[in-house]
UniProtKB/TrEMBL annotation:
Biological source species: Gordonia liuliyuniae
UniProt KW keywords: Hydrolase
Similarity field: Belongs to the Nudix hydrolase family.
Residues in Nudix hydrolase domain copies: 2-129
Alphabetized Pfam families for the sequence: NUDIX
Domain of life, source organism: Bacteria
PANTHER family: ADP-RIBOSE PYROPHOSPHATASE, DIHYDRONEOPTERIN TRIPHOSPHATE DIPHOSPHATASE
Keyword Hydrolase: yes
Name assigned to this protein: NUDIX domain-containing protein
InterPro entries: Nudix_hydrolase, NUDIX_hydrolase-like_dom_sf, NUDIX_hydrolase_CS, NUDIX_hydrolase_dom
Gene3D superfamilies: Nucleoside Triphosphate Pyrophosphohydrolase
Length: 136
């Protein structure tokens, strides 16, 4: 079975919303997730997360602590080993790029109404990143 290494960034704004991208490719095309993707040869997980955020959202970020790591089986795609990091926006202009069909900020209340990638809402809530009040 193929093992693919991947990294993602969890970016939360000043009012407690998380940045999500709508996946433009399989696996889980059309579902919403945090920005991320494959680790390229020679990259660390953190470097891959930083690069993927820029490619998918146009934002420059500082990568912080690792929030979680999971292994996710994806049928014919094999197993993804995904490492997710906290990240802070340093600059850039938010737009959907690379393999993202759309980008949006999402409140905790909105998580349950979106088609998210498998297990994402639970990971975000267990890590405490969605603990702030939603904007009024």
């Amino acid at each position: 079975m193929t093992r693919a290494l991947a990294a993602s960034a969890v970016i939360v704004d000043d009012v407690g919303r998380v940045l999500l991208v709508q996946r433009g490719h399989e696996p889980e095309k059309g579902r919403w997730s945090v920005p991320g993707g494959h680790v390229e040869d020679g990259e660390t997980f953190a470097e891959a997360a930083r690069r993927e955020v820029l490619e998918e959202t146009g934002l420059h970020v500082e990568i912080g602590v690792e929030l979680w790591a999971v292994e996710v089986p994806y049928g014919e795609f094999g197993v993804f080993e995904i490492h997710d990091f906290a990240a802070t926006v340093l600059g850039g202009t938010l737009h959907a790029g690379d393999d993202a069909d759309a980008v949006r900020w999402c409140t905790d209340d909105e998580l349950d109404s979106l088609p998210l990638t498998r297990g994402l809402a639970g990971h975000l809530r267990r890590a405490g990143v969605m603990s702030r009040q939603s904007p009024v």
